[in-house]
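Quick illustration, no need to memorize.
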Amino acid sequence: MPFHRTRPTSRWRKAVLRACVVGVVLGAVVVAAANAVVVSRTSDRVTTDPDDLDRVQVAIVPGSRVRDDGSLGRVVAERVEAATALYRDGTVDKVLVSGDNGTATYNEPDAMRDAVLAAGVPAEDVFTDYAGFSTWHTMRRAKEIFEVETAVVVTQGTYVARAVDLGLAAGIDIQGYAIGDGGRWGRELLARVRGLGEAIWRPGVTGGPTIPITGDGRASWATPPLSGPTRIPTG
């Protein structure tokens, strides 16, 4: 007896389509609501004008891609340049670079630190966080490991609202200095959903001994600075 595969009925197809539409709408509502919350909670703490910033303990510089040759990618180079300018202007007393050093062959913090040193910031005022695997890790470790009380996070306008919101969730009196547009807005809209969850639930991060931001930054260094100038391409 031949076997005939039963095709889905029209009613079943309509039910599946309806469920898909409802799922898309609910997802869009969640994303929009999360973004509205994050932006509304941080809008009065973000500026593009360094003269609007209050003097604080430290500029927090989140990591981003470092090239294979050790030079900084455009995004993180902009952050480092802006943070060192805040130091020279006396807006911050220290600079904390925080990034990914999850493998032996990839090291954002040391490349960032060497760029800050090359810009003329004294070694004792430069701190490194090797476990800044995400913005939440950076902010919570700034509070718990480096005992930061007041800070300005230096990052692109695309990311600054989420960074400030997570800094507040970590217990830091934090401002955001937006230094241009980092692009990738679609990805950031989704990242704010995750960030809001982190701000609410406050998951654990990599621990370690305390290295007070009021002390000598060299206590946080895992390796000595590279010899020669650090390359910071403009393009």
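Strands lie at 46-47, 56-62, 92-98, 126-129, 150-155, 173-178.
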